[in-house]
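Can't attach files on this board, so I'm pasting raw text. These are the components:
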Amino acid sequence: MINCENCHGPDDIPVIKSEDKTGTKTITTDRSQSLCLRCHLSLPARPGTLSTFPQPQIVLKKHMKGKGNLACFKCHNPHHPDLKPPEPVKTPADSNVNGTSTTTKDEKKTVSAKGRSIYNDKCLVCHGAKGDGKTEVAENLDPKPPDFARLKIGLSQLVGFIANGKGEQMPAYKDELSGEEIKEAAGYVEGFKK
Amino acid sequence: MKKLSRREFIRDSGIALAGGGLALFIAPSIVSSATKYDWTKHEYGYTIEIDRCIGCGMCAKACKAENSVPDTFYRTWVERYSYLKNGEVVVDSPKGAMDGFGSNFKADELDKAFFVPKMCNHCRNPRCVQVCPVGASYITKEGVVLVDKKHCVGCAYCVQACPYGARYIHPKLSTADKCTWCYHRITKGMLPACVLACPRKARKFGDIRDTSSEVYNLVKIHRVQELKPELKTNPRVSYIGLDKEVR
Amino acid sequence: MHEIIGAGYCYPNELHHYWSILIVLYPYITGLIAGAFIISSFYHVFGMKELQPIARFSLISALGFTFCVGLPLLFHLGHPERALNMLFTPHLTSAMAGFGIIYASYGVLLCLEVWLIFRPEIVRYANQTKGVIKLFYSTCLRSYP
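---
Top answer:
Structure tokens for the assembled complex are below.
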């Protein structure tokens, strides 16, 4: 559906560039949001999911949900044909579901289904299905997410990072997730430790 | 070397000049006939699908960039129709949607709402062509309505006559101006700027004599409407999904 | 400015007005010309003796207004230098071109009427004046003493 002219203007007339009077190549958060939200802001007049031609729309505050005020391209690559985050993939940790352990080696590592679903919903996009932080989205992030297999910290510290965020990129989730949910998610993340 | 007499010199140089002039005269028509655009071989049409439009306004922006449209004038714009729960219909078009739309009503105040892109309809029976006192407004053989800027007097009669509000007087040129379907582009086989800029493919342009074109097929498959049919202007822009309240 | 609240909707291009006071002046002046011409015709053509004192004056005032009726229209045009194209190469489906022809012929008719009614005065001025003005009146008479 999208071609270059939609954002860049017809032929070589740079509709984006013509508005950036500074002439620099960096696109600010405001600029990126205003350009992307031109099409993707949720307005009542825009065709909804029931329409013949539905279109993904967001309400900015809900979409950012505790991630702070980020530029859109921090998570979405506008030049990649597939703008959706990747689908969750089954990992070794997924084989231990609902607290049951199927192998003797992983007896102590029990993984809850709830923890997995919270991780897949909120964390997978940046941290990856294997927790290694090797995702498409992570390529735009600086600093990059760590590899959970080499985690050295304990559960309580993990809970603290999830609740309050860490550094510039990891947002705080204490407003979004309950204490229980954060603990479940932290438990799932600990399951990646080798 | 034989010595030329004056008479012979004049005769020879006359022949050379005549031959060179003839060659210069014929050569351009030989070169360009291969790539010459024949305006009798095309007939253009345009369709707009209301269901696809999201009101981003990139079409208005791209048109302004491509055609240097002056500020506060619009060759194409997008209108938003908001049907309130009390039955009232509110129409707005902030700066012709060149910067997109902001929220005006909340979803629970509205019955329904949608966007309608508008532009010059390039009518088959255009009022603007009829009322031009000097004949500067004319229809090309492909059906595009254009303004001859060398003869336009700037009387604004055509601006008054257009029922769709598509025309304006250019503040610098002091002549009438309007959407030309990017004539400078379509005669080279390219698409108008607004068609290219639409991310939802709501606008389509093509040759309606070409049975494989999108425009021809859309009009064939869908039930199409036109703006203000009671005025008998017979516009070439066909709307799909037009609502009864659209003015 | 672009959202006229409570008053409905206006197409974005139609927020600019082109036909305003200058266009209004034109029918006002043509109304004066037509009215003055009618007053003078009441006497000269229909023989109403009551209007005899005002008849010649109304005729000459109609002529005076005719000289300036085109000025507001000319000022309103984007390209006044091309204005006479409307008379030389008119587009005949246009009402404006048609009225250009009609009012031009009306102006010719008015000049003819003035020429005929004021002949005694023209002869007197042709005899009594000198120089360029004498030439002008002599041309009206088409006789050069």
